[in-house]
Amino acid sequence: MQTRSALATLLPALVGALVRGEAPARERVPLDAPPIVLLHGFGTSSRVLAPLARHLCRELRRPVVRCSLGGALPVHLGDVRRTARRVHEEIERLAACSRFDYVDVVGHSLGGLVAAYLLKRLDRGRRIRRVVTLGTPHRGTPFSLVGVLLLGLVSRAVWQMVPGAPLLRELAALPVPEGSELLALGSDADGVVPQAFASLLPAPRQSNSRVSDLGHVDFLVSRRSFRFVEAALA
User: Fold this and answer.
1) What's the pLDDT tens digit per position in 97-153?
2) How far apart are CA 78 and CA 234, in angstroms?
3) CA dist., res. 107 & res. 141, Å (int)
4) What is the spatial distance between Cα 219 and Cα 217, in angstroms, rounded to a whole number?
5) Structure-derived torsion over alpha carbons of residues 11, 219, 66, 79, reported in degrees to the nearest 10
6) Are residues 6 and 192 in contact, defined by beta-carbon separation less than 8 angstroms?
7) At how many degrees (to 10) do helices 166-173 and 110-117 cross?
8) What's 120's DSSP letter?
9) Cα–Cα–Cα angle for 122, 216, 35, nearest 5°?
10) Residue 191 per-residue DSSP state
11) What is the spatial distance between Cα 79 and Cα 212, in angstroms, rounded to a whole number?
12) 72-76 long-range CB contacts below 8 Å, 24 or more apart?
């Protein structure tokens, strides 16, 4: 029942994003502070991150960049590694035209896997100070089995969320670079990525937190979720 309910919740967002299309968006605040990069999840667009972006801009007074992970597509279905490389290039472009000491990255759901790969494999602590993930399938998710049936022929990413997938084993084995942190927030009410699957393995410089009564999509609209991110990046 949870899987069916979660699918019913996510499908409208997927269809809506396909119809509307998407473009990268930067919130209008002075670029005099380290930027925050927001990464959306599977089958959605960066539009879903607008409420969190507004909150962080207002409370932290930092520039926020919402990256569109889909490339030529309006939504993200593609390979996590390739997507992380695109985000890495975007951060390097930001660094070339702005002066900042570091950048923080926040990823929802699959966007958190992109952020973790970006930190551990590509950036390796060069620019990224902290990564915060919200409802991210660090250990995969049973829901991905439904995704494989529906989208397995067109999406690489859905296979990468299957529990035990090579990407997940690679990320679990890679250390968080010294000087950086990886923080994961999960919820006991998340029907898409249950709390146990959203948890990182015990390792230096990475930690888990838990919130109650937030569904998978609630991470994108809940003040409790926003306050967690705000405190983590303050």
Assistant:
1) 888 889 999 999 999 999 999 999 999 999 999 999 999 999 999 988 877 777 767
2) 32
3) 16
4) 5
5) -60
6) yes
7) 50
8) I
9) 40
10) S
11) 31
12) 74/17, 74/18, 74/20, 74/21, 74/22, 74/45, 75/14, 75/17, 75/18, 75/22, 75/43, 75/44, 75/45, 76/40, 76/41, 76/42, 76/43, 76/44, 76/45, 76/110, 76/111, 76/157
Q: Which residues, including other chains, have CB under 8 Å from residue 78's CB and lie 6 or more apart?
A: 69, 70, 71, 155, 156, 157
Task: Yes or no: say if 66 and 25 are a contact pair by the CB < 8 Å rule.
Answer: yes
Q: Smallest Cα–Cα separation from 138: which of 178, 92, 194?
A: 194
Domains in the chain with CATH codes: 2-21+33-233 (3.40.50.1820)
Cβ pair 228, 205 in contact under 8 A: no
151 φψ region: left (φ > 0), alpha (ψ -120 to 50), beta (else): alpha
Tokens at 214, concatenated: 């937030």
pLDDT single digits (tens) 149-187: 777 677 888 999 999 999 999 999 999 999 999 999 999
Look-up: residue for tokens 């010294």?
178
User: What is the largest distance, in Å, between two alpha-carbon atoms of the chain?
Assistant: 49
The answer to whether the Cα torsion of 114, 65, 76, 4 is positive or negative is positive
Strand locations in the chain (E): 25-26, 36-39, 64-67, 103-108, 128-134, 181-187, 206-211
